[in-house]
């Protein structure tokens, strides 16, 4: 079971503005904050997400094949979060829509630092 996912950033202020708005759509805000690290979520409320400047002081880079996914309550929420992300400077990696016949509905995007994210729901 995942507790949280951390993405790297070279601009914590920009990441904070992006994730404050994305996470607000899921009803959560910042739960931990330091000079180089911010975490969003709800203690005991499932997986959260964090953005950090790398501890080693080197530039943050994007992991090829690495992705974090936000679980939405409905297709409407997937659409809303995907469109919000794009409006906040995210880049499209696959517009919100059905994927296959399994009931999986998802939108893919990269945050302003290039980290790949997904918002999805299963079923109707």
TrEMBL record:
It holds the Pfam family Glyoxalase. Transmembrane segments: none annotated. Signal peptide: none annotated. Residues 1-122 form the VOC domain. InterPro entries: Glyas_Bleomycin-R_OHBP_Dase (IPR029068), Glyas_Fos-R_dOase_dom (IPR004360), VOC_core (IPR037523). This is VOC family protein. It comes from Hyphobacterium vulgare.
């Amino acid at each position: 079971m995942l507790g949280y996912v951390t993405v790297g950033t070279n601009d914590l202020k920009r990441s904070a503005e992006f994730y404050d708005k994305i996470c607000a759509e899921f009803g959560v805000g910042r739960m931990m904050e330091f000079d180089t690290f911010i975490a969003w979520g709800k203690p005991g409320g499932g997986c959260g997400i964090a953005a950090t400047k790398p501890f080693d002081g080197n530039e943050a880079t994007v992991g090829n094949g690495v992705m974090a996914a936000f679980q939405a309550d409905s297709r409407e929420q997937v659409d809303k979060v995907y469109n919000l992300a794009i409006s906040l400077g995210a880049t499209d990696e696959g517009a919100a829509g059905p994927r296959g016949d399994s009931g999986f509905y998802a939108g893919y995007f990269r945050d302003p630092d290039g980290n790949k994210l997904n918002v999805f729901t299963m079923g109707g």
